[in-house]
Amino acid sequence: MARWDGALEETARQQRLTFLPGLWNGLGVMANYTYTTSTAQLREIDREVRLPRQIPHVANLGVTYDLAGFQGALTTNHRSEYLFEVNNLMNTPQTWYDGHPDFHYRSSYNQRWGLVGFRYGL
User: Fold this and answer.
1) 59: Cβ contacts below 8 Å, ≥ 6 apart
2) Which residues, 6+ apart, have CB-to-CB distance to 31 below 8 Å?
3) Which of 34, 90, 94, 98 has a 20 to 30 Å separation from 18 between CA atoms?
């Protein structure tokens, strides 16, 4: 590559809702967003392209719970469409991956005698 240009912006917020009464004060919320952009000038084919496998938009949202040894989270992650592969031939189409959301579940419980149990899911 002869030249590369790029930018990155990210914002995030996480808040535990301790002002809620009783067992509800273990609730929390989280969110973040990342934007990246980049281009490269390819010498071999004399054109400018996005850098492969760099996802331009990524967003995460989640609800968390943390109280009395229990920790859990339900989260979703969204990735936008992105260029996966640059082909060397001028008239060959590039390989793109579609954007899609993912959903995740995570929990753990720390018992008094030191054992910790975990559970994960997609």
Assistant:
1) 31, 32, 33, 34, 77, 78
2) 12, 13, 14, 59, 60, 61, 62
3) 34
- CA–CA dist 108, 113 (Å, integer): 15
Helix or strand or coil: residue 55? coil
pLDDT of residue 2: 46
Provide the pLDDT for residue 63.
Answer: 97
- pTM for the structure as a whole: 0.74
46 vs 3, 7, 94, CA distance in Å?
A: 11, 22, 15
State the amino acid at position 90 in one-letter form: M
Alpha-carbon distances of 45 from 11, 63, 86, rounded to whole Å: 36, 47, 11
Please give the single-letter amino acid code of residue 1. Answer: M
Distance (Å, whole) CA 19 – CA 23: 11
**Do 67 and 23 touch, CB atoms closer than 8 A?**
yes
Tokens in use for 72?
């859990």
Cβ neighbours around 82 below 10 Å, total: 19
